[in-house]
């Protein structure tokens, strides 16, 4: 008993203490990697699915054959509007959600909302797509505020575990100003290095699945006359049929099931890998903030002169995200080399952002404004160049130049985004509630994108934005369409469409077909399946015969009424 309970000569208390805090430091690194990988996976799924969805829904033949008179163009318009408009009220509810749920559970809940959006694509209807899009718009700002707060808080914890012998750490006092800057820089850089890879993985569905169905640039760009600085709108004259043939419904379900599995994996990572950001006692203190203060604190933070000076950078960050995947990759990229190269343009941009996020590590030696200044130095000359550069449509030889421009733009974007998050973590490391600061940052981003969305009235036709993406109204369905049931649809002879719908479509059919022939232009625009034209002709013939019967019946009724009136007069 004495040997068991007595002091062990081999036990070294100091060494065991070192081992304990070493495990704590590894736990912090695990938390940072888990949050980074989880965010990367969920955004890869979201952007990849939304891009594939908008390309399929843009194609006129796909809408006619698969979904008929469902009105996909109107659904997509309202869905993208929900993603863009909802974040503007995020300043009111984001602090409340984080107050009750905490940063970890807020990230888990937001990833669940993104997974919900993926699940609604199994049954594409107005009452599934639009509410899920509004939910995503509501979750964007809370998710990013939680991620920024979580990474900064992990930097503070890592400092505490490295310097566990310091008196202010043992007494759990406020940390001295500036002691966590080194770890904030490293952890935020690591986060963005991993997260920007989401732009690369988001293109896997298009490259591995959708690419085989896309028409080449000679067809899609047949009527496009101007690109780049001379173009008006997103891509003026872009063909309304972009698919050579339609993908099978079973294949679509398989792709969406893979994406659904990845979304669930992200939820599991947030739940099982990421640890708590605060100690239990700290959580109690944070949740003791009253209801009045919880609404007032975001607006009180706006009175800080440092935040007010950074607002132009917040707005530019939102415009940068918008321009990168709409103006640059569409108006310059797709307009020049065709939709089949879209995956390569976005992949190069994502790789450039990920690689050059490492440059923010230079803030360990250089002043903290260097990152933002470097982004401005790179983007400034590029913007001047893009204002005067108008590549010719259908010019695949311009692809190398486009890739160089996109890679340089990705370098500037990486410095801007990583630099802003690092700067906020360094300026407000002494704040107990960092989520207020990051909420204001991403709220201004959402405001910038919302203003552009209202100002331009443009809706993205064939691509998506990494955080929130605007979109453009698509043309209406112009031919008799089968009634749908999920991915399966009924043939024309078995269709149970109402006669009123058919007669309404028949009234405007000839005028709409003339418009389509003019828009398609020449042989490239006249492509379509023979079976579709035969079905249209057969349906028109039956409707004309039905209309003739109605006219004859009306004439008979008029003659009978005239005969009755003559009898009454006699």
What can you tell me about this protein's structure?
This protein is mainly α and 570 residues long. Helix content is 70%, strand content 1%. It contains 23 helices and 2 strands. Strands 1-2 form a two-stranded antiparallel sheet. A hairpin with a 2-residue loop joins strand 1 (484-485) and strand 2. The longest helix is centred in the N-terminal third of the chain and has 46 residues, at 13-58. Mean pLDDT is 78; it is low at 457-536.
List low-pLDDT spans. 457-536
Decide which structural class fits the backbone: mainly alpha
Largest sheet: 2 strands, antiparallel
Q: How much of the sequence is in beta strands? A: under 5%
- Note the overall shape: globular
Give me the side-by-side strand order of the main sheet: 1-2
Percent of residues in helical segments? 55-70%
Q: How many distinct helices?
A: 23
Biased composition (Acidic residues): 492-512
Keywords: Membrane, Transmembrane, Transmembrane helix
Protein name: Unc-93 homolog B1, TLR signaling regulator
GO molecular function: Toll-like receptor binding
What is the secondary structure topology, with strand pairs?
Blueprint lengths: L1 H4 L7 H46 L1 H8 L4 H14 L4 H31 L5 H37 L4 H4 L10 H15 L2 H4 L2 H5 L8 H4 L28 H25 L6 H7 L4 H11 L3 H33 L4 H15 L13 H19 L10 H29 L7 H22 L27 E2 L2 E2 L9 H9 L1 H12 L1 H4 L4 H40 L1
Antiparallel strand pairs: 1-2
Helix pairs in contact: 2-5, 2-6, 2-8, 2-12, 4-6, 5-6, 5-12, 5-19, 6-8, 6-19, 8-16, 8-18, 15-16, 15-18, 15-19, 16-18, 17-18
């Amino acid at each position: 008993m004495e040997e068991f309970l007595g002091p062990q000569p081999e036990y070294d208390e100091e060494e065991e203490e070192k081992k304990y805090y070493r495990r704590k430091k590894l736990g912090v690194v695990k938390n940072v990697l888990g949050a980074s990988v989880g965010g990367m996976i969920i955004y890869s799924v979201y952007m990849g699915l939304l891009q594939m969805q908008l390309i399929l829904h843009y194609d006129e033949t796909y809408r006619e054959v698969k979904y008929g008179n469902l009105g996909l163009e109107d659904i997509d318009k309202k869905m993208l509007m929900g993603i863009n408009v909802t974040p503007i009220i995020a300043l009111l509810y984001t602090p409340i959600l984080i107050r009750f749920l905490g940063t970890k559970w807020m990230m888990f809940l937001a990833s669940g909302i993104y997974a919900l959006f993926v699940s609604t694509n199994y049954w594409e209807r107005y009452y599934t797509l639009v509410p899920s899009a509004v939910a995503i718009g509501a979750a964007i700002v809370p998710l990013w505020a939680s991620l920024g707060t979580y990474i900064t808080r992990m930097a503070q914890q890592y400092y505490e575990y490295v310097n566990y012998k310091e008196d202010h750490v043992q007494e759990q006092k406020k940390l001295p100003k500036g002691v966590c800057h080194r770890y904030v820089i490293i952890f935020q850089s690591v986060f963005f290095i991993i997260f920007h890879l989401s732009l690369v993985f988001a293109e896997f569905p298009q490259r591995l699945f959708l690419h085989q169905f896309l028409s080449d640039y000679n067809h899609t760009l047949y009527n496009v006359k101007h690109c780049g600085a001379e173009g008006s709108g997103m891509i003026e004259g872009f063909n309304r049929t972009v698919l050579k043939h339609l993908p099978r419904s079973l294949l679509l379900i398989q792709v969406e099931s893979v994406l659904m599995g990845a979304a669930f994996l992200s939820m599991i990572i947030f739940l099982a890998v990421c640890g708590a950001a605060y100690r239990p006692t700290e959580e109690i203190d944070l949740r003791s903030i009253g209801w009045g203060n919880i609404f007032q604190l975001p607006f009180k933070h706006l009175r800080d002169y440092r935040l007010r000076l950074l607002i132009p950078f917040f707005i530019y960050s939102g415009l940068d995200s918008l321009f990168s995947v709409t103006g640059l990759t569409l108006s310059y990229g797709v307009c020049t080399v065709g939709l089949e190269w879209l995956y390569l343009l976005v992949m190069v941009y994502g790789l450039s952002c990920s690689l050059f996020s490492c440059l923010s590590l230079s803030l360990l030696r250089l002043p903290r404004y260097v990152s933002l200044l470097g982004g401005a130095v790179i983007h400034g000359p590029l913007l001047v160049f893009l204002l005067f550069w108008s590549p010719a449509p259908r010019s695949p030889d311009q692809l190398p130049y486009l890739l160089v421009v996109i890679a340089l733009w990705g370098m500037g974007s990486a410095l801007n985004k990583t630099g802003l998050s690092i700067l906020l973590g360094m300026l407000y490391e002494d704040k107990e509630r960092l989520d207020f600061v990051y909420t204001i940052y991403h709220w201004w981003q959402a405001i910038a994108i919302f203003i552009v969305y209202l100002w331009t009235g443009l809706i993205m036709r064939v691509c998506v934005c990494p955080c929130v993406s605007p979109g453009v109204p698509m043309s209406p369905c112009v031919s008799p369409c089968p009634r749908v049931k999920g991915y399966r649809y009924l043939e024309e002879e078995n269709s149970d469409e109402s006669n009123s719908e058919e007669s309404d479509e028949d009234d405007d059919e000839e005028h709409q077909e003339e418009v389509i022939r003019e828009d398609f232009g020449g042989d490239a625009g006249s492509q379509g399946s023979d079976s579709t034209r035969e079905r249209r002709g057969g349906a028109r013939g039956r409707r004309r015969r039905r209309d003739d019967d109605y006219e004859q019946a009306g004439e008979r009724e008029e003659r009978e009424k005239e005969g009755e009136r003559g009898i009454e007069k006699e």
